[in-house]
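BACKBONE GEOMETRY TOKENS
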Amino acid sequence: TRRVLFTEGMLKGDSALTAMLLSSGVDPAELDVRPSDMVPTSSGFSPAPGRARLTALLESVPEADQVTIYGFYGIHNWRNHPEWNGISPGKNHAYVAFDGDVGTNPHVWKAAKDLFDALDKKHSDPVLIDLSGAKDELGRKVGMDDYLATMGDWASLLALGTKDLPARPRTEAEGTIGQWRMDPDTAQTQE
């Protein structure tokens, strides 16, 4: 029943997790990997001690500040996994944190819209982390990992949340109003 955040890729998910832990007062040195985190076994190493230490750090985050983070490979890949059916964010916020081109890239917008629709069906409250106004030093779009590394912290990231997706961006194939084209579905001309 706690808040959830959906993002693309492990790097963005790890960035979110780190930012959440730091915002709750975890000492950055606690996030360092230690030799004791990996125990030698007959078949290699066991990460069990490291997992136990990370679990303890996560449990130290006050419940009201906890956000469950889901990172999936590719903006559309959440649909290809049956475990998606077991995720039930309930009435809480379900943050969608795609890159800042969600308002300009039709493919990213479509993925965000599909995820919003799926979350609506799960009776959740989808919220877009809108990074469209954030640009790097060269004016390029940024992702959540870039934002957290150089522009803001966990609280400011969540403050970028909006319940509305931007308007659907047009594709080059759609053309502009007044132009003629062949409809891709019916092979008929249309203005």
Summary: The radius of gyration is 20 Å. The chain has a mean pLDDT of 86. The chain has five helices and nine strands. The beta strands are 3-8, 39-41, 44-46, 67-72, 93-97, 125-129, 161-162, 181-182, 189-190.
